[in-house]
Structure formats: C-alpha cells, structure tokens
Design brief:
It is a single chain. Helix content is 37%, strand content 14%. The chain is of the alpha/beta class. A hairpin with a 5-residue loop joins strand 11 and strand 12. The chain is globular, with a radius of gyration of 22 Å. The protein starts with 6 loop residues before the first helix and ends with a helix. Bound molecules: pyridoxal-5'-phosphate. The site of pyridoxal-5'-phosphate has 14 residues, from helix 5.
C-alpha cells in the first residue's frame, strides 16, 4: 500500500480558533441576551476601496470581450502589476528592485508556506515565539521540525522568545540556524523592530550564511519613522533575505486574495556540491510548475492601489483600524493592563493579569465583559500569559468594548 507523508500525523489538531468558537457558542447559548463583541479574528471588516472596486468592474468587462479577454496569465504575475510594485513599493523608497524579482501570488500564507520547497529539508529553522503558526507547521510537514516536545516546542526548531522580559525584541539565535523567520510588524504581538535592530539580523545572516524570511504582511500599518517598511531598507539584505507582502491587511484583499514575494537576484544558497545557487530562478521554476498565476481581475484590482486615489483610500482604511488600535491600547493601559503593539499594527498584545493563563483570561473577558480575543498560548509557548486583541472592528464596537473594560469609553 502507498505511504503517506508521516510528518502530517505529527501535527497536533489546529485547535485555537475552533476552541474559541466552541467556547463562544456555548456561552451564547447559555446567555442568549448577551451581546458579544468579537475582537479575536485577524480578518479585515471594511469593504474594498472605490479605486479597487472600479478596477475590478473594468477587468470583468475586459474578460467579457474577445479582444480584451485574458486566459492564463504569467505564473509570476502580470508585468503591469510587478512593474508598479517595483516602482512604488521599492524604488520610490530608495531600494533597487527589478520587476523580475517580484513574484505575485494568491497571498502570503501560500508563499510563506511554500518557500520551503526550494530549501533543503536538512536546513535548521529558527522562529520568534509567539509566532504566526504557518511557519512552524509547514516546516513540520516538510520534516524539518523534529519531534513535538512536552513544552510545546519542536525539537529541531530554535525558538526565540519575545516577551516583556526582553521588550519583545528577540535575541539573535545561538543554535546556528540556516533559515530564520521574522515577521514585522509582528503577528501576534503587534511589535516592531527599529532599523538598527533589523540591521543586526541582516548582519547576522550575512555572517553566518543564514536565510532571512521576512514577512511584511502588516507593512501598511507602519507609522513611525524608524521602523523599516521593507527588509531591503537595510544594507546588504538583498543577499540574504526574501520578503513576503500581502494585500490582505493592506487593502482588504483577504477574500479576493493577492500578495507577492520578493526573491532578489543577488540571493544565493548552497548546492550539494558546495556551489552557490541563485534562489530567484528556483522560485520561478517552483511557481511556474506548481502555481498557475493569480487572477487577472485581482491583479487589475491591486494595480489601482498604486494610483493617487487608491493610495489615499487604503490609507484612510488603515488609519481607521489604527485609530481603533489606539483606542484599545490606551483604554487598556488606562485600566491598568500591560499592553504592547497597536501603534504600527492592528494587533494589541495584552499581559494577562497576575498568574492567569491565556485561556483563563479568555474565559474571564468573555464572562465578565462579553469580549472575545485570542489566547496568546495559541501562538507558541512564549505566548502563554498573553492575549491578542485586534482592531479589525467597527469604531462603535471598539468604543463599546473599551467602555466595558474601563467603564470610560475613551
Ligand atoms: N503573514 C502573517 C503574519 C499573517 O498574519 C497573515 C494573515 O493573517 C498572513 C501572512 C497571510 O496573508 P495572506 O492573506 O496574504 O495569505
């Protein structure tokens, strides 16, 4: 009989959001009169902006006429979009970028998960902890993670804890990893790294021959000057880093799907014979073989984001979420909670009071204030004792939630 990929059986059931839903449903059934405010889910709530909607309509019309119909497109994305990305997201910020270093895809989840296809299964991985679970789980599937230990860590992954003790700034690794995942602005903590802090990581990777996988899915939320929008703002990063970007949280594309990955031409890894091999053609080969391109419609929609109207409209939406984040962060701080994030990020990371676990705090908030968030322990062992709230809500609900928590509503 055929064999399965045994690594999949090592993965524990993905229990976080289903358990959240189970507890919320049970509570609602027991207390049907209560109005629950949900601040757990990491999904946007505001509709697509007008510039995108107009471009999508026009693209549908293109597809309705033989003369302008588009079937299969280039697997790595249309030039009309990759040229705009190279120009607007990079060159205008002083970063050298060619359109053929950009690979457009259906989103950052696929790309951060698939990137391991072009890396050796012998590569040792390091992640910050807590972490976006896709990085760890996809390495488990590929056989790089080792065994699940009693403390919730995988034996062959190096965890770099981020907590109040180190100001949520991970230490450089000590286990000599080959591949390091960094996500800034961070999900789930909402924290960022400054230019000089990120430089240490780029320098580390250059010195040790490590690959930096930099997830910039929340780049659009950065408002502080000293926080780089791209890893390539750091000198030398093009030789060590791949960057992932997403239109999901930037422009509300979580439903229609689009993102891109930058694989610089200068980035090289080691082949079996010790020769340096460029990653850009490997990823192109991977994408052209396993991916048939993001839809023409969505790419036309994203193109509209690079017009002055598109830029202004998405900025307004992101500002709306950031104002929610400010309200939550300041409200919780005023109520005596220790909070980080929410400045350059839609996520607010709250320390649970006293010795309460993440799940105990979940139950406490649900029962006492009828507010739902996400237990930090679901994002890794170092997330225990923390809790994630998101700004992806209406202003009204955000204000009401803070009012419940603080009795003020400021
Ligand atoms: N990376 C991080 C850190 C995320 O939080 C998310 C979504 O929540 C993604 C990637 C996925 O983005 P996309 O919707 O483009 O697949």
């Amino acid at each position: 009989m055929f064999k399965i990929n045994q690594n999949f059986t090592k993965l524990p059931a993905s229990y976080l959001f289903s358990e959240v839903a189970r507890r919320v449903n049970a509570y609602s059934q027991a207390h049907p009169e209560v109005e629950i405010i949900k601040m757990g889910i990491g999904d946007v709530t505001r509709p697509l902006c007008k510039a995108v909607v107009d471009a999508l309509h026009k693209a549908v019309d293109d597809e309705a006429q033989a003369a302008t119909f588009h079937g299969y497109g280039p697997e790595q994305g249309y030039g009309f979009l990759s040229e705009k990305i190279a120009e607007y997201d990079y060159r205008r910020h002083g970063i050298d970028m060619d359109a053929d270093e950009i690979f457009i895809s259906d989103g950052a989840k696929s790309d951060t998960g698939n990137i391991g296809d072009i890396l050796s299964t012998a590569d040792k991985v390091a992640v910050t902890d807590p972490v976006y679970p896709v990085y760890v789980d996809t390495n488990v599937m590929a056989g790089r993670a080792g065994e699940l230990l009693a403390d919730g860590c995988w034996s062959n992954i190096e965890y770099l804890p981020c907590n109040a003790g180190n100001g949520f700034v991970p230490s450089l690794p000590s286990g000599n990893p080959d591949v390091i995942y960094l996500c800034y602005p961070n999900n789930p903590t909402g924290t960022t790294l400054t230019r000089s802090q990120l430089k240490e990581w780029v320098d580390y990777c250059r010195l040790h021959g490590a690959l930096l996988l930099f997830d910039a899915a929340y780049e659009a939320y950065i408002r502080e000057d000293d926080v780089p929008h791209s890893i390539y703002e750091i000198e030398g990063a093009k030789e060590v880093a791949i960057e992932f970007r997403s239109y999901s949280k930037t422009a509300g594309f979580t439903g229609i799907r689009l993102g891109y990955t930058v694989v610089p031409k200068a980035l090289k890894g080691l082949g079996d014979d010790g020769e340096a091999v460029a990653l850009n053609p490997l990823w192109r080969r991977r994408q052209t073989t396993k991916f048939n391109g993001a839809s023409y419609l969505t790419q036309r929609g994203a193109e509209a984001l690079y017009t002055p109207e598109g830029q202004a409209q998405v900025r307004e939406t992101v500002d709306y979420y950031l104002e929610n984040a400010r309200i939550i962060r300041e409200g919780l701080a005023a109520a005596g909670y220790d909070v980080v994030g929410g400045v350059n990020s839609p996520y607010i990371w709250v320390k649970t009071p006293g010795t309460m676990t993440s799940w105990e705090f979940f139950d406490y908030l649900l029962d006492r204030y009828h507010i739902v968030g996400t237990p930090g322990s679901g994002f890794g062992p170092a997330g225990e004792g923390y809790f994630r709230l998101t700004a992806f809500n209406t202003r009204e609900n955000t204000l009401r939630a803070v009012e419940r928590l603080t009795g003020s509503g400021k």
